[in-house]
Amino acid sequence: MRAALTSLFALSLLALSPLPRPAAAQDAEAGQRAFNKCRACHQIGEGARNLVGPELNGLIGRHSGSVAGYSYSSANKNSGLVWDEATFAEYIKDPKAKIPGTKMIFAGIRSEKEIADLTAFLKQFGPDGKKL
């Protein structure tokens, strides 16, 4: 009986202790909701077109300032950036800090989870706007 209680006590301590947990997985559905912050200026998906900002199809892996038909700032065109997850995460936190002189007017997204979810949503779309 004593051994059973000791084991039960040890298990309850483990359940309450702050064990390291894996990082939260990206959630494309939550990212779609986060994209509502972007929707006023950007489109994504089949039939997306440039608005105030460029369409975002195939963003991950694309060179900054390279969407045909969009009038980028010199800062954006000449930044030399290739959009990967880390670069996008840094940019979306504070666009003007990452690319001084960009014409993107956006306060940024501070939440790491929201950025990860938004990235998951954006990654679903290939350059043609079709879901991968």
**Major sheet details:** none
Helix content range of the residues, please? 25-40%
- Shape, principal axes of CA atoms: globular
CATH topology: Cytochrome Bc1 Complex, Chain D, domain 2
CATH architecture: Orthogonal Bundle
Query: Which CATH C-level class is it?
Result: Mainly Alpha
Instruction: Give me the CATH superfamily.
Output: Cytochrome c-like domain
Instruction: Indicate the multimeric state.
Output: single chain
Structural class: mainly alpha
* Total number of beta strands: 0
Q: CA-to-CA gap between the ends?
A: 57 Å
Along the chain, the helix and strand elements come as: HHHHHH
Radius of gyration: 21 Å
Strand content: under 5%
Ranges where pLDDT stays below 50 over 5 or more residues in a row are 4-23
Mean pLDDT: 87
Please indicate the count of domains: 1
SS field, number of helical segments: 6
